[in-house]
UniProtKB/TrEMBL annotation:
<dbReference type="Pfam" id="PF13358">
    <property type="entry name" value="DDE_3"/>
</dbReference>
<protein>
    <recommendedName>
        <fullName>Tc1-like transposase DDE domain-containing protein</fullName>
    </recommendedName>
</protein>
<dbReference type="InterPro" id="IPR038717">
    <property type="entry name" value="Tc1-like_DDE_dom"/>
</dbReference>
<feature type="domain" description="Tc1-like transposase DDE">
    <location>
        <begin position="99"/>
        <end position="205"/>
    </location>
</feature>
<dbReference type="GO" id="GO:0003676">
    <property type="term" value="F:nucleic acid binding"/>
</dbReference>
<dbReference type="InterPro" id="IPR036397">
    <property type="entry name" value="RNaseH_sf"/>
</dbReference>
């Protein structure tokens, strides 16, 4: 207040005291109105955890460096610790895979080179699906083949092939994977593959077949048994997303 009484402006006082201009002006205004100089009390949020819990959390972070898919919990000094870094394959191996499943078995994986077009898909059906159906002795009147509406699945040549081989298909909802039990198996395979990523194409094929062969009979039987519930859910949500 002495600086203000000497005729100094608010900004000059702020520069001298290394404060903000509006802070000094508010203090001077408050003093003129009340004759007092009050320090505004800052609100401090109470901590949701105790000091003991905070120490335990710090210990866990330092000990385990809990790694999430998108970030690593660490302190500043641990930026380049080996257990705080996550390696990533820049160009991971990838391949097109096809297979089929029923309530009683799953077929082996078929690895396709390049894109699967209508001609290649017909080759897959004739060499793999038909032989699987024959080996399982599935009743032609009761069996229903399920596939999505990918271009190679809905091509005219493919439809002719299915008609000639008595393959009745389930009508498919556009842009919806919700009806497909095999999508659950693909998802589980991807999750397990992320735990031990393949570095080469041959290694990828080996890992995929290895994971696929671990599927238990009751697992894919349970998935097929969910079909009535899946269809009911899709109808209820008018083709939209469901719990599946």
């Amino acid at each position: 207040m002495n600086l203000s009484a000497q005729g100094n402006s608010g900004c000059k006082i702020a520069k001298t005291l290394e404060l903000l201009c509006y802070t000094v002006r508010d203090i001077i205004k408050y003093h003129k109105e009340t004759g007092l100089i009050a320090v505004k009390q800052c609100f401090k949020r109470n901590s949701a955890i105790t000091d003991a819990e905070l120490r335990i959390l710090e210990h866990l972070v330092k000990k385990t460096h809990r790694i999430h898919r998108s970030r690593v919990i660490r302190i500043k000094s641990e930026a380049y610790n080996i257990d705080c870094l996550r390696t990533k394959v820049k160009f991971p191996a990838s391949i097109m895979v096809w297979s089929s499943m029923s309530s009683s078995s799953v077929d082996r994986l078929y690895f396709a080179d390049g894109i699967i077009n209508a001609y290649k898909y017909i080759e897959i059906l004739e060499q793999h699906l038909l032989s699987t159906i024959e080996s399982l002795e599935l009743d032609g009147k009761k069996r229903v083949f399920q596939q999505d509406s990918a271009p190679c699945h809905s091509a005219r040549k493919v439809k002719v092939c299915m008609t000639e081989n008595n393959l009745k298909t389930l009508p498919w909802v556009s842009s919806s994977p919700d009806l497909s039990p095999i999508e659950t198996l693909w998802s589980r395979m991807k999750k397990k593959l992320r735990e031990h990523p393949a570095q080469t194409l041959n290694d990828l094929k080996h890992r995929l077949q290895e994971i696929w062969d671990l599927c238990a009979l009751d697992e894919y039987k349970a998935l097929v048994d969910t079909m009535p519930s899946r269809i009911e859910a899709v109808l209820k949500h008018k083709g939209g997303a469901t719990q599946w």
